[in-house]
Specification:
The protein has 187 residues and is mostly helical. It folds into 2 domains: 83 residues, no CATH class; 72 residues. Helices cover 66% and strands 0% of the residues. The protein has 9 helices and no strands. Helix 8 packs antiparallel against helix 9.
């Protein structure tokens, strides 16, 4: 059993399990799946100011805090108790491409050249972390939800805005990965 949990699962198993979350949430309490709304709930709970956007009964959504807590706990359990003992293997073409950007650390999924305190205070680090974080947060708010809310919950409910948002997420991801990211990595 431990060996099964340590290996990547096929897309049809992992995708099917994620897909089952939607009807489970709807049947168990008429709840909607999404992650980005938690920031609004946390702000409404911690900073009850006179801001109209945060004036609602956030306590009805407290289950969502437990959901996100479960995601974080699952990540910690996976990293600590279920690590993959095999070294990270990258395709030689990818190693060559990354070397062109100055990324030579392939010991983990998070290269030291991009994800470290030292790299945070570089132009590339500020653009990727601060700029990217702002754009993700702004985009999720502007789209009325995040990728998980729209692509998993909204599409399963056959919502037209979720289809439009998911197509735009995919288009933006393609443009970022293939056109903008190479420019940013050269900074």
């Amino acid at each position: 059993m431990l060996k099964i949990l340590q290996q990547p699962w096929p897309w049809y198993v992992a995708g099917g399990l994620i897909g089952l979350i939607v009807p489970a949430l709807l049947l168990l309490g008429n709840k909607h799946f999404g992650i980005s709304a938690n920031l609004r709930h946390a702000c409404a709970a911690c900073f009850p100011a006179g801001i109209k956007f945060f004036q609602y009964d956030w306590k009805k959504e407290v289950w969502n805090f437990f959901f996100v807590g479960g995601i974080l706990a699952g990540a910690v359990i996976a990293v600590r108790l279920l690590p993959d003992p095999d070294p990270l293997v990258l395709h030689p073409a990818l190693v060559k491409e990354l070397a062109g950007y100055g990324i030579t650390d392939h010991s983990s999924f998070l290269p030291e050249e991009l994800f470290s305190l030292r790299s945070l205070f570089t132009l590339r680090g500020v653009v990727m972390l601060a700029g990217g974080g702002f754009l993700v947060g702004f985009g999720a708010r502007y789209a009325g939800g995040c990728t998980s809310g729209h692509a998993i919950m909204g599409l399963s409910d056959l919502q037209w805005p979720s289809l439009v948002a998911t197509v735009m997420f995919m288009t933006g991801g393609f443009i970022m990965a293939n056109l903008l990211l190479p420019l940013i990595l050269h900074l």
